[in-house]
Amino acid sequence: MPNKLDELRSEQRISGKDAIFVCYPSQDGSRKEEKHTCNAEDISQGGIKIVTRRPLPLGCILPIEIQIQDKSIHFSFDGEVKWCLEIDEAPTYFAGIKLVKLDGKSYQQWRNFVES
User: Fold this and answer.
1) Highest-confidence range of 10-24, 51-65, 76-90, by mean pLDDT?
2) Are 41 and 20 in contact (CB under 8 A)?
3) What's the pTM?
């Protein structure tokens, strides 16, 4: 049975647990070029929900890379942090990322992946 949050979503979501990894640059204010890897909790045509060990600043635009583990699929796009919630004391965070700056061909490939 869908919960109230599911009823508010405008797009279908699919589970992404352990299926994809999202890399984004360090947001600690340093000039480091390091990337952090995290798992996606779910994905939709318009965005992803990620699980991360670091909080992400709301409204920040990040270059995102997604590699699908069991397939040779790779996506690169910019994503806007729409929300970020601490879920435990580890610390672990859930963050909602809206896809932005995704060209037409890449967006169609993303849609095909999400719908498959």
Assistant:
1) 76-90
2) no
3) 0.74
Q: Name which of 64, 54, 60, 76 is nearest 25 in CA terms.
A: 64
Pick from 23, 33, 110: which is nearest to 75 by CA?
110
- What is the chain's length? 116
Are the beta carbons of 94 and 56 closer than 8 angstroms? no
Structure tokens at 51: 């699980």
Tokens 């589970």 appear where? 15
CATH number for the segment(s) 4-115: 2.40.10.220
So where are the chain's domains? 4-115
Look up tokens 């952090």; give the residue. 36
Tell me the per-residue pLDDT of 35-72, one tens digit each, with 9 for 90 and over.
Answer: 777 888 888 888 899 888 888 889 988 888 887 766 67
